[in-house]
Amino acid sequence: MDDQEVTYPVYSPASVIGIFSNALKLNATVNLIYLKGRYAFGGSKSYGNYYYDLLFSEGDHTSIGIRISSLLRSKITNNEIYTLRGFIEKSIKNSSIELRVVVDEIVQQEERSISEEELERYELIQKKLETGSKDLETLIRDKMLKEERVRIGNIYGNNAIVHKDFFEGLDVSSKYFDVSDHSCNITSSTAIISKLKEISALDYDIVALVRGGGDRQSMETFNDLSLSELFISMKPITVTAIGHTVDETLLDKLADKRFHLPHDYGAGLHSIAEKLSHERSNSRALLIDEVKKDVTKQFSEQVETLEKQLKKKNEEFTEAQKTYKEQVVNHNKTFTEQLKVRNEEFQKLQASSGKQLEDLQKNFQEQQKQRLAEMESYKKEITFLHEKNVQSAINERTASLQVTLETLRQENSRLNLEVQNSRTDYVKITIIFLLALIIGFVIAKLS
After folding, report:
1. Is the pTM of the predicted complex or chain greater than 0.90?
2. In the predicted model, is pLDDT for residue 426 greater than 50?
């Protein structure tokens, strides 16, 4: 048998959400209904000519979203009780379904009865009015005049990142402030009370509750009576910057200074510090202006005195210049006369020197001729004397050789005589022969 293929429907997440969205068809979703509750503004801007607000139950803090036209919304007073008519629309976001009432008509506005809780809030506000608010600008001014940094303790929610917005608003004025960050569960009044008690012993100048946003139901935390009572009893200046610009909580009313957003809080401190810095600069400028006036007056008097002295010096200088010109003219005249005399003397000296130089040249030429003649005479005498000396030496040498030759002749005669006497004496003959040869060689050499 062939295996039968099993088939089953496959849905995407969007298909499942669409199926269930279409399945939620109740009478309340298809018909007009009436709702009653406390109306709370959600924002100051409209989107497509509609505002998105909240409607709270009178007995608790449960709320539902409201979409209302700009025209109807202009007739609404914030935090008042209204009966509204409209229909429910639903929107799907991921796997959650959000319900919202689209208002078609404002049925009526009811006068709110004053509850015991509201009386307590009123008493706290009156108490704050009686004690008065501490001035933030005065504190910062005193600290800046003393050149001390303002100590600030900011309370943020756990894992909040709005401190970046605060420091971005504070900008370059951070040099005037010493800021410490503290965190707690900022949606819990109990946690905030505990944190306020903890930092009250740290001697801060300013304590601030800083919150960057969140759902509107958590804003009720800042209407807590116990928290509010502790808040107005604190010694430091109290500040709120809890995110929503439309809603004003009880803590906002009791704070010494309220800012809407963390960035506004930082920018507000920066504005105050910058203003005080300019005031201090202007004060210094006024002091400098006064000093300038005194200095200007003294300077004007000194200038006047100097002008008088300068005028006198100018007159003296004019007189001295006149005298100097006369002296220069006289000096130039004297110098011209002296120069003329000097030129005449120089010309005479130049002529005399030229004649003397000419005579010297003639004398030098004559002396040179005489020296040349003497040199020629000396050369001739030297040549004659040399020849005479050479001839004398030759004669002297010749005479000496002649004497020697004569001696040799006599000796030769004697030897010949002896040879004749003794013919057998050959040795003597040989010697005589050799002597004759030597004498003959010497005579030939001298000749």
Report:
1. no
2. yes
